[in-house]
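Journal club side-thread
Mid-discussion, someone asked how the predicted structure for our own chain would compare to the paper's figures. Pasting it here so we can look after the session.
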Amino acid sequence: MDDQIKAVIPAHIGYIVDGNRRWAKKHGLPNYEGHLAGYYALKEVGLATLAAGVQYMSAYVFSTENWKRSSDEVKKLMGLTLRVLKSDVPEFNKNNVRLKVIGSLEGVDDKIIQAIRDAEADTAHNTGGVFALCFNYGGQREIVDAVKGIVDAGVPAEDVTEELIAQHLYAPEVPPVDIVVRTSGEQRLSNFMLWRSAYSEFLFLEKNWPDMTKDDVDAIIAEFTKRQRRFGG
């Protein structure tokens, strides 16, 4: 990017983590090795994103549909999730990063639920940005749960607004996504942040997620800086 152009730092970058299994296949490795490589990339890219001044980084790491995968693959993905939630907490604290998990807890093992609560509590004091994991997450499910919450609260239909629905989303403090980045060449949302991506910019990258590095963060911000956002105006 031209040094004369001042970078526009998005408040929230959302990553659709895609291509772990393709990366493994390309390298003649089992799927787990792809997920492990993706885990390392997630930490590098996520922390670099927040270090660049982005306030919120979200990553789509496990969708509500991913339970359909083989029991062995799901088990190993749960193991990596626990690794982030437990073993990596000191690293988040060292980087002054707050961990947040966005998604439904329905059907999630009690051990993981407790790890989520502990990790969020242990990093709650950090002020260097929010590292949000979209775990057991589905955009449509999130909106349905928000509507259920409004109905349960007895809110009259005429009082339901966009703002009210936003207040009932998972982690309502997390703002709309400024730019959604998806790897592996696929060009779709796959049920990611449907409400928060209403006016998002989109960036589709050909590389698989494990090939992402901190250098890609600078390129993403440079691309975002070039975009002209009109929000319908």
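Post-session note: Strands lie at 12-16, 56-63, 98-102, 130-137, 179-182, 201-204.
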